[in-house]
Write a structure and sequence with these properties.
This protein is mainly alpha-helical. Helices cover about 70% and strands about 0% of the residues. The termini are far apart.
Length: about 220
C-alpha cells in the first residue's frame, strides 16, 4: 500500500504575501522625529560628559568639539551640509526636508539640554554602551520614517537601498575611518570605550534595520 504524502512547498509557495503598506501619518512622522532627536541628543550628551566619541556624524562632531573651540551643535550642523546636498541628489526633497528638520531639532535640543539636565558623574562604560545604543535607536526611528541625521547615515541608506548592503555594515566601515583619526587625540582607554559605543550603535542598525524587515512607509 502506497501512502501519497504531499511534497514540501517551496519557499516561494509557502511565503505569505506582504501586507498592504500603510503610510505613516504626518502626526506619526512628527512624533517619531522628535522622539528620535531626543534619543540622539541624550546619547551625545552622555558621551560628551564622559569625553568619548561614537560612530557617524555624531562621532565626528564630538571628536572635533574636543580639539576645536566650536560648539558641538554648530559642528554637527556644518559637517552635515555636503551630505544634505548628496541626499537631495539621491533621495529627493522629502527626505532632505525631514533631514534638515532633524538637524535643526538636534541643534536646538543640544543648545537647550544643559538647561534641562546636567551630568555631574557619568560612568564611562554606561556612557559608551547606553549612549551608543540610544543614538542607534534614534537613527533607526529616523530611517523608518524616511529621514536621517545626515552624514554617513545618508551613505548607509543609499547603499542599502541601491546595493542591498546592510546599513550597519556601511556605518561600521565609516567608523573605522573615524577612529583611525581619533587615535591622534583620544587616550587609549577612551578610544576603546568610544569604539564600544560605535559598536553598540552599529549593532542596533545591523539587527533592526535589515532590507525587507520593515514594510511601513
Amino acid at each position: 500500500m502506497t501512502i501519497n504524502s504531499p511534497l514540501p512547498h517551496t519557499l516561494a509557495d509557502s511565503a505569505s504575501p506582504l501586507p498592504d503598506v500603510i503610510p505613516h501619518t504626518l502626526a506619526e512622522d512628527a512624533h517619531a522625529l522628535c522622539m528620535a532627536c531626543s534619543f540622539i541628543v541624550f546619547g551625545m550628551a552622555c558621551l560628551k560628559a564622559a569625553g568619548l566619541i561614537t560612530g557617524g556624524i555624531a562621532g565626528i562632531a564630538l571628536g572635533l568639539s574636543y580639539v576645536m573651540p566650536i560648539s558641538l551643535q554648530v559642528l554637527f550642523f556644518a559637517l552635515n551640509i555636503p551630505f544634505l546636498i548628496f541626499a537631495k541628489l539621491t533621495f529627493g526633497w522629502s527626505f532632505v526636508f525631514k533631514t534638515i528638520l532633524v538637524n535643526v531639532l538636534i541643534v536646538v535640543m543640544l543648545s537647550a539640554f544643559s538647561r534641562v539636565l546636567t551630568f555631574t558623574d557619568v560612568n564611562p562604560y554606561f556612557a559608551a554602551i547606553f549612549g551608543g545604543t540610544i543614538i542607534g535607536m534614534g537613527m533607526l526611528a529616523l530611517a523608518r520614517h524616511k529621514a536621517s541625521v545626515g552624514g554617513i547615515g545618508v551613505l548607509a541608506l543609499y547603499f542599502q537601498e541601491k546595493r542591498g548592503w546592510r546599513a550597519g555594515h556601511v556605518l561600521l566601515a565609516g567608523d573605522i575611518v573615524i577612529f583611525s583619526a581619533a587615535i591622534s587625540f583620544l587616550a587609549p582607554d577612551k578610544l576603546v570605550l568610544s569604539f564600544l559605543s560605535a559598536a553598540s550603535l552599529s549593532l542596533v542598525m545591523m539587527i533592526y534595520h535589515r532590507p525587507g524587515r520593515y514594510v511601513a512607509a
